[in-house]
Write a structure and sequence with these properties.
Blueprint (H helix, E strand, L loop, with lengths): L5 H5 L19 H4 L14 E9 L2 E4 L5 E3 L5 E3 L3 E4 L4 E6 L4 E4 L4 E8 L9 E14 L2 H5 L4 E4 L3 E5 L3 E6 L3 E8 L1 E6 L17 E4 L4 E6 L6 E4 L12 H8 L10 H11 L61 E5 L11 E2 L1 H5 L2 E6 L3 E6 L12 E15 L2 E15 L4 E10 L3 E12 L3 E5 L3 E7 L5 E9 L3 E11 L1
Parallel strand pairs: 9-10, 18-19
Antiparallel strand pairs: 1-4, 1-6, 2-3, 2-5, 5-8, 6-7, 7-9, 8-9, 9-12, 10-11, 11-14, 12-13, 13-16, 14-15, 16-17, 18-21, 20-21, 22-23, 22-29, 23-24, 24-25, 25-26, 26-27, 27-28, 28-29
């Protein structure tokens, strides 16, 4: 079975920043930018339950019967509000009981109920509805004191808590969740588990604890959620990246006087694919070579040479879907978690094929890079600077016009194993975007992983233990859409 699904949620937040992002990083005070909104035309103000503490990109809020409004840092949120994020939108909300919720891109979260009783927290009740996308919740006083009155609904399952920090990914057909701390309880909706209820459901319910190194998955046809094991890396730790990179990259606290919850929130922000302007990733356009004026010459009577056809522009995108037989000798292959491939996906094997004699290294919601670790268990010693040539790649541009395949015309990748850094460039093209150069530099981590994140792009990859193969996936945000892609490289 798909035992590596932990990558889907663990590594969605695994590409942390090299610098610290301040809570007030946008320079806007909550009081200065707070929006005052009513209850959707009822004439009665609805009490404030939380405020936006940090955000990136585009995000909106819809009150009960009011029109959609743009969210900003300091925006007030109330019961009945629905938060919608765009393709590059991240919203971090602090609630009145010190709870925090992070809403990821392309997500819809509704605050169904948030009744916090400050004098008697055990009488509080909280309900969210994650209609689509990904959200992370860190429990506050309400959920901790009134666990039987906390609920996060998804399209097909209910999630209750035992005081926790957890991440949920939801679609109309599948829900997946992991726990960073505490315990959650997931159950599919049924006659015994109504969406109208509060708290954990008892029927067909499965618990998941943060120490279990597992995730919970519920699909639309299963009678109850299933637990999927998570592998460990060569140092015996869960290969999440979230805690490890946050610990490695997070700097000292921003200043005195911050509460423990604020520090927890800072960590959430650091893991949200934002940037503090560290400059570790460089975004550049193709350099233009200046032309040198030439002196006109007298025309000759020499007959013109035969004009040949222009050479074909190289495209490293495969023409046919990859097969297990064709990559049987490769140490690195791309695998997908879905049972069937997207018709435009030409580089991924099925989970069973990619995981045979290989272990996952990095990945996202849909795919993982699998590495052969049967002979070597760690990077060979003595590797210096290795240059790689592009073997194959695929890239897509996703916009309001749809998803289209881009040309991958070339690229370069160099890894300095002694200096623990990498640099890469990828040349992409499509009529809708023009020529795009994806350029990135960053760190090489223990275990042969390399990654980095900036405000408009991110990259994560791995190298084979003998230093002869490499691969990475990448994302780049453009003004009107996103570019995503996969690569595989061989050493020169």
């Amino acid at each position: 079975m798909n035992t590596q699904y932990f990558v889907i949620l663990r590594q969605i937040l695994s590409y942390s920043l090299s610098g610290v992002l301040f809570l007030g990083g946008l320079g806007v005070s909550a009081s200065a930018s707070a929006e005052v909104r009513g209850s959707g035309g009822t004439g009665v103000n609805v009490a404030e339950v939380g405020r936006v503490k940090f955000m990136l990109g585009k995000a909106y809020v819809e009150a009960r019967a009011q029109s959609r409004e743009v969210l900003r840092v300091g925006s007030v949120l109330r019961e009945g509000d629905r938060i919608t994020t765009g393709t590059n939108g991240h919203v971090h909300i602090q609630f009145e009981d010190d709870a925090f919720v992070s809403v990821r891109p392309n997500s819809r979260l509704e605050i169904v109920k948030y009744d916090f009783n400050a004098e008697r927290p055990e009488l509080s009740s909280v309900k969210f509805n994650l209609q689509d996308g990904v959200a992370r919740a860190i429990s506050g006083k309400a959920a901790k004191s009134a666990r039987e009155q906390f609920r996060l609904n998804t399209p097909i399952a209910a999630i209750g808590v035992r005081g926790t920090d957890f991440v949920v990914s939801a679609t109309d057909t599948t829900v997946r969740a992991l726990v960073n701390e505490g315990i959650i309880v997931m159950a599919p909706f049924s006659a015994e588990c109504s969406a109208d209820g509060f708290g954990p459901c008892g029927a067909n319910a499965v618990e998941l604890a943060g120490q279990s190194m597992q995730i919970l998955e519920q699909d639309g046809i299963a009678a109850l959620p299933r637990l999927l094991p998570a592998p460990v890396n060569d140092e015996g730790s869960v290969l999440s990246g979230e805690a490890a990179i946050a610990s490695a990259d997070a700097a000292a606290t921003e200043g005195a006087g911050k509460t423990a919850k604020e520090e927890t929130f800072r960590e959430v922000v650091e893991l949200s694919n934002a940037t503090a302007g560290t400059g570790d990733i460089v975004v550049a356009s193709a350099p233009t070579t200046p032309t040198t004026p030439t002196t006109p010459t007298t025309p000759t009577t020499t007959p013109p040479a035969t004009v040949s056809e222009s050479p074909a522009v190289p495209d490293f995108t495969p023409t046919e879907p990859v097969t297990a037989a064709a990559v049987s000798t490769q140490q690195l292959v791309w695998g997908r978690y879905a049972a069937t491939a997207n018709p435009q996906d030409l580089m991924t094997l099925s989970f069973a094929e990619s995981s045979a004699n290989r272990k996952v290294t990095v990945g996202n919601l849909e795919i993982g890079l699998f590495r052969d670790e049967t002979s070597l268990k760690r990077l060979e010693k003595g590797l210096g600077v290795v240059s790689f040539q592009l073997n194959s790649a695929q890239a897509y541009y996703d916009s309001v016009s749809g998803v289209v395949a881009m040309q991958v015309n070339g690229g370069s990748l160099a890894i300095d194993f002694q200096g623990s850094n990498f640099a890469t460039e990828l040349n992409l093209n499509h009529p809708l975007t023009g020529s795009i150069d994806f350029v990135a530099t960053g760190r090489l981590f223990s275990g042969g992983y390399f990654r980095n994140t900036a405000e408009t792009q991110r990259i994560a990859g791995a190298v084979s233990f003998d230093g002869t193969e490499a691969g990475y996936f990448f994302e780049r945000q453009l003004e009107f859409g996103n570019i995503t892609g996969l690569t595989l490289w061989n050493s020169q």
